[in-house]
Amino acid sequence: CSSLAIGTTTGYKLFSLSSVEQLDQVHESNEIPDVYIVERLFSSSLVVVVSHAKPQQMNVYHFKKGTEICNYSYSSNILSIRLNRQRLVVCLEESIYIHNIKDMKLLNTIVDTPPNTTGLCALSINHANSYLAYPGSATSGEIALYDGNTLKTACTIPAHDGPLAALAFNSTGSKLASASEKGTVIRVFSIPGGQKLYEFRRGMKRYVNISSLVFSMDSQFLCASSNTETVHIFKLEHLTDSRPEEPPTWSGYMGKMFQAATNYLPAQVSGMMNQDRAFATVRLNISGQRNICTLSTIQKLPRLLVTTSDGHLYIYNLDPQDGGECVLIKKHSLLGSGKVEENKENDLQPPLPQSYAATVARQSTVPSTSTMPGYSEDGGALRGEIIPEHEFATGPVCLDDENEFPPVSI
C-alpha cells in the first residue's frame, strides 16, 4: 500500500509514499490520453493501462524502460483489471479473461457471466491463493468464487439479498468481504469454504453506494467508504469464544441472555443483535465524490489513506487500541506538476525468499491472442525452475530484478 496510480485526461501518473510527508512522483506518461484504468503490479515496473480512446484494448508497459510489453484487444469495453504475481484478470461486462502474467498467455475465459456493468471483481494479491470473486447474479448478492490457479470454479456464496456493490480479499486470500447495493451490511466470509465469519452494520438510516472495501494487511481491520462523508473502519474480533465454557462474568451472563432471547425474536431483529458497529470513523471534508481507501503502515504506525476523484490524497492516523474518530495529519495534491523523483519504492521492499520465476506455475497450452510475437513457449519458468533472467530476456515480461516484487506471504 505504498504505491498509488492515477489516470487522467492527459495520461497517467505513478506515486510512491515513503512517509507521511513524502509523496514521490515515480513516473508520468502523456502518451495515451483519457486513461481510466491504470494498474501497477505492486512496486514493479509492470503497469497496465486502458484508455477511453481504445476502451477495448489493454496495453502492458515496462514503464522504467519506456517499452510496451504487449497489448490485447477484446470484444467489448474493458471495465476493470486485476493483477497479482501470477495472474492478470480482465473483466468485461459479460466475460472474464485470465492471463498468465509471466508470458501474458490467455489461460482461460469465463464466458456468459451475469451482466456486470461496473466490472466488479476481486483478485487475491496472494498468488498462492489466486482466488477470483465476481457477481454470480445480476439480481441477487451471490458471489462466484473461482480458483485462478486450477482454473476451476471453487464455490458460490449467497452473500446478500440485493446485487453486489463491493468485493475485497484480505492479503492472504483467506477472507472475502462483500457489500450489496444497499450498503447497509458488510459481511466477511472464509475462503475457499464460503462460511460467514463476520457481519457489520454500516448504517440503517439511508442506502449508500460503497465505493471502496479493503482489509488491513494483517486482516485485523476492514475499511468501507461510500458516496457519503463518513468512512467506517471495523475491527475483526472473534465473535464466538472457542473455549468450552465462558468464565462466569456479568458480560458473559448477559451475552447468554441475549443469545437466548434471539430465539424468540424475528430473524431480522435477532440478526442485528450479532452485528458490530464501526470501531473507528473518518469524517471527510467532501461528499458525493468517488473515493478509494486503504489501510497501511507508514513509519511504523497504522494509517488510513483516502484518495478522492478530485485528485487529493488524505492521510489519517488510526488508533488500533481505542479507535474512535481518526485524525487528519496530511493532505497531498496528485494533479500538480510535480518533479519526477528517484524511484525509492524498492527500498521499502524486503528481499524475497525465492525468485519471481520460481513462483510461476507451468504454462497452459491455450493459444494467445497477443499482438506481441516472439515469446518463448515456457515463458522461462517451466516446472517452476529458477532460471537466470538473461535466459528469458526475450520474453515479453522481463522486469529488473526480484526486488521489484513484494515478499511472499507465509
TrEMBL record:
Q: How does it sit in the membrane?
A: Peripheral membrane protein
Q: Which GO terms describe its cellular component?
A: phagophore assembly site membrane
- Coiled-coil zones: none
InterPro entries tied to this protein: PROPPIN, WD40/YVTN_repeat-like_dom_sf, WD40_repeat_dom_sf, WD40_rpt
Compartmental location: Preautophagosomal structure membrane
Name the domain of life this protein comes from.
Eukaryota
Comp. bias (Polar residues): 363-373
Q: Enumerate the GO terms in the molecular function aspect.
A: phosphatidylinositol-3-phosphate binding
Q: Where is this region: Disordered?
A: 363-382
- What are the recorded Gene Ontology BP terms? protein localization to phagophore assembly site; response to stress
Q: Which UniProt keywords apply?
A: Autophagy, Lipid-binding, Membrane, Repeat, WD repeat
| Family the entry assigns | Belongs to the WD repeat PROPPIN family.
- What is the designated name of this protein? WIPI1 protein
